[in-house]
Design goal:
mainly alpha; about 300 residues; single chain; two-stranded antiparallel sheet; about 0% strand
Length: about 300
């Protein structure tokens, strides 16, 4: 008889399993992103209201209202996709669509806040610039913990709003203090991307480990069920004990063969207890004269050198 492995089929099977695992990971990343989206949108709305309120007297109201309308449209666009997520969920077939929206949403938010930086920062004094730095920097810091599960969303924000803020801080700096602020923002942006990547890898590995444990537990459960089924359907009585001689598994034939032990069949019952309460159990393998000798039965159990057939 010959046997062989079909390499092509094996490769296709591996690829299918690998793709399935990647899809589960991607689905989990997107679900984590969309579950946190209301927190992101609420924070951005509060930040926008604070900014408009503080600068209302310093800039033309039409300019601020126009930007606020643009910001509201962006929030509505992202909220719409969150509601779709709540209604429809994320299916493997729609993963490309949800990935695209999870990237475009933060990109739109980053562009809106980059626009307000370009509009306001050149004419602001140091306190006003520091307020912009505080608001956008706060969003960026929160993004590491909230959106880094899906790393492209963090990149979309950091490379628009945060990078624009950093460049404008250098571009409008005229004093050593302002240059120092620009340098701190540059370091903060680098740290943001570094910790975002680190957080994303950590979350990814946690998901992979959890799935590996779940898969292993599933295999163990199936193996245990198969073993129990095989033991239950064996034509002989079977009782299995652990290293401490405690009963772990038995089948119905064992219960039928030793009816005097019907109340003793439970996990954890010791071999000694079964032998003490069953003359027929003690007699297994005996030579006749010591059929009820408990010590002799325990010795045979502890030092088995042959098998016995009981009819």
């Amino acid at each position: 008889m010959s046997s062989f492995i079909n390499i092509a089929d094996t490769a296709r099977t591996y690829d299918a399993q690998h793709n399935s695992a990647e899809e589960r990971l991607s689905e989990w990343q997107l679900q984590t992103y969309y579950r946190n989206l209301p927190i992101v949108l609420a924070g951005m709305t509060v930040g926008a209201l604070i900014l408009v309120t503080v600068f209302w007297t310093y800039f033309e109201s039409a300019l601020l209202i126009g930007w606020l309308c643009m910001h509201t449209a962006m929030v509505g666009y992202r909220a719409h996709h969150y509601l779709l997520y709540r209604e429809q969920g994320i299916s493997p077939d729609d993963l490309p669509i949800w990935r695209r929206q999870a990237f475009l949403g933060p990109l739109a938010g980053g562009l809106v806040w980059a626009a307000v930086v370009l509009l306001l920062m050149p004419t602001l004094a140091l306190p006003g610039r520091m307020l912009l730095v505080f608001i956008i920097g706060g969003f960026s810091a929160a993004a590491v913990g909230i959106t880094s599960a899906y790393l492209p969303s963090l990149y979309a924000w950091a490379l628009t709003a945060q990078l624009t803020l950093t460049l404008m801080a250098f571009g409008t700096a005229t004093t050593p203090t302002e240059f120092s602020m620009g340098l701190m923002l540059a370091l903060f942006t680098v740290a943001l991307l570094f910790f975002g990547n680190s957080s994303s890898r950590s979350m990814r590995q946690s998901f992979i480990d959890a799935n590996s444990r779940a898969a292993l537990q599933s295999r163990v459960s199936r193996l245990e069920a198969t073993t129990r089924s095989a033991i239950e359907n064996m034509p002989a009585a079977v009782a299995l004990f652990d290293e401490a001689d405690r009963l772990m598994v038995w089948n119905r034939r064992a219960v039928k063969l030793f009816p005097e032990l019907r109340t003793r069949w439970r996990i954890g019952t010791t071999f000694n207890e079964l032998a003490e309460n069953s003359p027929s159990w003690r007699s297994i393998g005996s030579k006749g004269q010591d059929a009820n000798d408990l010590s002799e039965r325990l010795e045979r159990h502890q030092n088995p050198d042959r098998s016995w057939e009981v009819a």
